[in-house]
Design a protein that fits this description.
GO terms for molecular function: 3'-5' exonuclease activity; 5'-3' exonuclease activity; DNA binding; DNA-directed DNA polymerase activity. The chain is of the alpha/beta class and about 900 residues long. It folds into 6 domains: about 5-255, 3-Layer(aba) Sandwich (Rossmann fold); about 265-300, no CATH class; about 305-500, Ribonuclease H-like superfamily/Ribonuclease H (Nucleotidyltransferase, domain 5, 2-Layer Sandwich), CATH 3.30.420; about 505-610, Taq DNA Polymerase, Chain T, domain 4 (Up-down Bundle), CATH 1.20.1060; about 620-675 and about 755-885, Alpha-Beta Plaits; about 680-750, no CATH class. Helices cover about 50% and strands about 10% of the residues. It binds a DNA duplex (9 and 15 nucleotides) through helix 26, helix 28, strand 18, helix 33 and helix 34.
Length: about 900
DNA sequence: CATAGGAGG
DNA sequence: CCTAGCCTCCTATGA
């Protein structure tokens, strides 16, 4: 027997929100309304065992009702942001549970439900409507039961035509008349003033309909008669507003609402994501996709780990063919210098722990060959780090097939706890302790005894093997499998290769630079002390503030929360007042170069190779960019000549080779042109115009030769602002103009680039609806604060919504170029090596006889990495060091 | 361990 | 009227 349940999504989540205490998950996202909704939903499923189910939502601000009555729902409080942020969560959860949902622009949920019940009536199908709104009673019929939810969401009262007759002595149709007379304060439906439920019922029992009441007022007397005559129009309008529209153009078939029980594969993970652990337990769901609950539970309980000592490797070697997962325990932040503790391997049935001394021993050679075999697929957590740590111990690693760390990053790049135990916990795998608990933290770090250690590593392996299928499902559901398998996984191996290779540094030149900086610093410091009339610590903003603003009485431009601000922006403004300020600015510049780039870089030169080996981090930046550590080679100075000189110390590692660098020209604005589909912007790039000049021409409405330096500078600032999610304040700061002027500027820009304006509006709207934004390659970033009531939080999220698809797509593109470049170098058997990536730039070292090829190949690959509606442009140059390659 | 400041895209 | 640019990493102070 078919049984369809229709749920008024907006009404129920609203009720749940006010009924439930404010529950939040670990990331601070409020989830109480989703929780309340879910408990009610699960109860309905249990009690009624529906064969079909659908949750209907309101969509679109203006419904057709506003055409009749502008104030419709006018008095209603705006949806609290703490609630609106939960809509995307609920919609995502419903997907995971396998419950269909529907909304159609311009109609409310009850119209959708009204239309479906009409169709069901016509077909003679059983339907149950769930809502807290008594209006729904008008839909009751022999086939349609109305479940009215009360007391928050804890009680349900069922109404068919008989129950309505019993309670009100009315037919379902008369419910509309009832509301027409009494109105509804919450929807701002007026009704007749002074007529409440009691009077309305009395009138309807006597006359039957609103129309009859109005036309037969002569049968009434006194105040009542006057009021009804006076507000007759209002009653008719109110009746119309209260009538559920049952002719919505729906293209829904019954099959679209099929419900085959909770989706056993995705329900657990979806609930786990919201941290509804009690519900998972209650439903006996496994968070392990595809596994049955009993199996999942059994797996949690048992690890079966064998510690492999010297001379005991036979068993491991035999089991190698069936090993699925590995884990290498390391210690230390910098993987190039990490200590390797040991290796854990896991088959489906058991785990092995091989201490590092054993792994190094001669008899473990087959094990190392297994590790190095790229044809053997391996799963694990942070395989990139493991690869580097093993490499410096002389052990090769290849065959990374699934890295749960990378997968977790794609599924939520802003997740703060990316540790394996954090990840496991997120999916309800509670058997894995945090590393801090097992090893201690900071100076207290200590490898526990073998029994504890091997148990922990075995559990890590188990967690990985449980996470892989869950994440695979989620990646698939998000359309991210290609991004994962074809971009991020291959890239992680390429990054490891680049890092192992490292870039050579000319130590003598670097030290010489350091001596030059040192003497400049000494001079500056002496002059500053002299002018100040006292010695103090120039590196202390606190002491410096004291000198500038107390002793020298310079005007205070800006304050920080701890005192006077002395940053460069402030000092620039103070420069005209006092000679000391220029000197301080110079000191700051040189001191920065000395401490961070000369001394910092010297510390990072490897005594094994004489090179610097940065560590690219693939799972940090929320937009999908890489970041670089130990040292950071993505912020080597270039803008000021003094600092740019540092690039001279980055040299080829082999005599006669060159450094070759290629960078994308205006990649972010080109990406913007593509995704916004702005005709003017696209045209500028199709004709390869100077984009800032072109912007100035269009915004100021002048010809090319009328654009002066100042206009171009302003246009450039606006272009940057656009990419970052512009605010008039930000632009005004940047250009040193008033906020009004900046606002006018931005307006003018959007007037000219209307496609860009449309994109900015659309992307924010989309983010508010879906809860996330994505790049061209489907990389996601969730924006839980997009509906916050706090202005700052919300504005921040809105700018992020505008910026992330741009910056993120640019990141996607250069990553694609790296994968393609790596392939091209291999296929063409070139000796040239890719060494560095700096967001929009790739740096190579190239032998003399490959220069000509590489000069063509690199820009060729970069500009065709991804086909956009505008050309991608890449400029290439080379020289005897990074400075010369400009 | 937090804050200020500054280097890059 | 006010809030107040996007994404990072590193060094120095000073509590």
């Amino acid at each position: 027997m078919e049984k369809l349940i229709l749920i008024d999504g907006n009404n129920i989540i609203y009720r749940a929100f006010f009924a439930m205490p404010p529950l939040t998950n670990a990331s601070g996202q409020q989830t109480n309304a989703v929780y309340g909704f879910t408990t009610m939903l699960l109860r309905l499923i249990e009690e009624h065992k529906p064969s079909h189910m659908m949750v209907a939502f309101d969509a679109g601000k203006e419904t057709f009702r506003h055409a009749d009555y502008q104030d419709y729902k006018g008095g209603r409080q705006k949806t609290p942001p703490e609630l609106s942020g939960q809509f995307p969560l609920l919609k995502e959860l419903l997907k995971g549970l396998g419950v269909s949902q529907f909304e159609i622009s311009g109609y409310e949920a009850d119209d959708i439900i009204g239309t479906i019940t009409r169709q069901a009536d016509e077909a003679g199908r059983q339907v149950m409507v769930v809502s807290g709104d008594k209006d729904m009673l008008q839909l009751a019929s022999g086939n349609t039961t109305i479940a009215v939810v009360r007391k928050g969401v804890t009680e349900i009262e069922y109404f068919g035509p008989e129950q309505i007759k019993e309670r009100y002595d009315l037919t379902p149709e008369q419910i509309i008349d009832l509301k027409g007379l009494m109105g509804d304060a919450s929807d701002n439906i007026p009704g007749i003033p002074g007529v409440g439920e009691k009077t309305a019922l009395k009138l309807l029992h006597q006359f039957g309909t609103v129309e009859q009441v109005i036309s037969r007022t002569d049968e009434l007397k006194g105040k009542m008669k006057e009021k009804i005559e006076e507000h007759a129009d209002s009653a008719v309008l109110s009746k119309k507003l209260a009538t559920i529209y049952r002719e919505v153009p729906l293209e829904l078939s019954l099959d679209d609402m099929k419900f085959d029980g909770l989706n056993q594969e995705t329900a657990g993970p979806a609930l786990a994501k919201l941290e509804f652990k009690s519900l998972i337990e209650r439903l006996d769901l496994s968070t392990h996709a595809g596994a049955d609950a009993a199996e999942g539970a059994a797996k949690q309980a048992q690890v079966n780990v064998t510690v492999v000592h010297a001379g005991e490797l036979a068993e491991v070697k035999e089991a190698l063919d069936s090993v699925q997962v590995l884990h290498v325990e390391t210690h230390g932040d910098n993987p190039h210098h990490a200590e390797v503790i040991g290796l854990a391997l896991a088959t489906e049935q058991r785990q092995f722990y091989i201490p590092f001394e054993v792994l190094k021993s001669e008899e473990a050679e087959p094990l190392r060959a297994w590790l190095a075999d790229s044809e053997i697929p391996k799963r694990g957590y942070d395989l990139h780090r493991l690869d580097l740590a093993l490499h410096w111990q002389g052990i090769a690693f290849a065959g990374a097939a699934f890295d749960v760390h990378l997968a977790a990053y794609l599924l939520d790049p802003t997740e703060s706890n990316q540790s394996l135990s954090g990840l496991a916990g997120k999916y309800g795998l509670s058997y894995l302790q945090a590393d801090e608990e097992v090893f201690g933290k900071g100076a207290k770090y200590k490898v526990p005894d073998e029994a504890v250690l091997s148990e922990n590593l075995a559990r890590k392996c188990l967690a990985v093997s449980e996470l892989v299928p869950i994440q695979e499902k989620e990646l698939e559901a998000n359309g991210m499998l290609p991004l994962f398998h074809e971009l991020e996984m291959p890239l992680s191996r390429i990054l490891a290769d680049m890092e192992k290779q490292g870039i050579a540094v000319n130590v003598e030149d670097l030290k010489e630079l350091g001596r030059e900086f040192e003497s400049q610093i000494e001079k500056l410091v002496q002059q500053i002390y002299e002018i100040a009339g006292t010695e103090f610590n120039l590196n202390s903003p606190k002491q410096l503030g004291e000198i500038l603003f107390v002793k020298l009485q310079l005007p205070v431009i800006k304050k920080t929360k701890t005192g006077f601000s002395t940053d460069a922006e402030v000092l620039e403004k103070l420069a005209p007042y006092h000679d000391i300020v220029r000197l301080i600015l110079q000191y700051r510049t040189i001191a920065k170069l000395q401490s961070t780039y000369v001394e910092g870089l010297l510390k990072e030169i490897s005594d094994r190779t004489g090179k610097v080996h940065t560590y690219y981090r693939q799972t940090i930046a929320a937009t999908g960019r890489l970041s670089s550590q130990y040292p950071n080679l993505q912020n080597i100075p270039i803008r000021l000549e003094e600092g740019r000189k540092l690039r001279k110390v980055f040299v080829p590692s082999e005599p006669g080779w060159s450094i070759l660098a290629a960078d994308y020209s205006q990649i972010e604005l080109r990406v913007l042109a593509h995704i916004s589909d702005d005709e003017r912007l696209k045209e500028a790039f199709i004709h390869d115009m100077d984009i800032h000049t072109k912007t100035a021409m269009d915004v100021f409405g002048v010809s090319e030769d009328q654009v002066d330096a100042n206009m171009r500078r302003s246009a450039k600032a606006v272009n940057f602002g656009i990419v970052y999610g512009i605010s008039d304040y930000g632009l005004s700061q940047n250009l040193n103009i008033t906020r009004k002027e900046a606002a006018a500027f931005i307006d003018q820009y959007f007037e000219v680039f209307q496609g860009v304006r449309r994109y900015m509006d659309e992307i924010v709207k989309q983010a508010k609806q879906e809860g996330y934004v994505k790049t061209l390659l489907e990389r996601r970033r969730y924006l839980p604060e997009i509906n916050a009531s706090n202005f700052n939080l919300r504005s921040f999220a809105e700018r992020t919504a505008m910026n992330t698809p741009i910056q993120g797509t640019a990141a996607d593109i250069i990553k694609l170029a790296m994968v393609q470049m790596d392939k091209a170098l291999q296929e063409k058997k070139l000796k040239s090596r890719m060494l560095l990536q700096v967001h929009d730039e790739l740096v190579f070292e190239v032998p003399e006889d490959e220069l000509e090829v590489m000069k063509k190949l690199v820009p060729e690959v970069m500009s065709h990495a991804l086909k956009l509606s505008v050309p991608l442009k890449s400029d290439v140059s080379y020289g005897s060091n990074w400075y010369e390659a400009k």
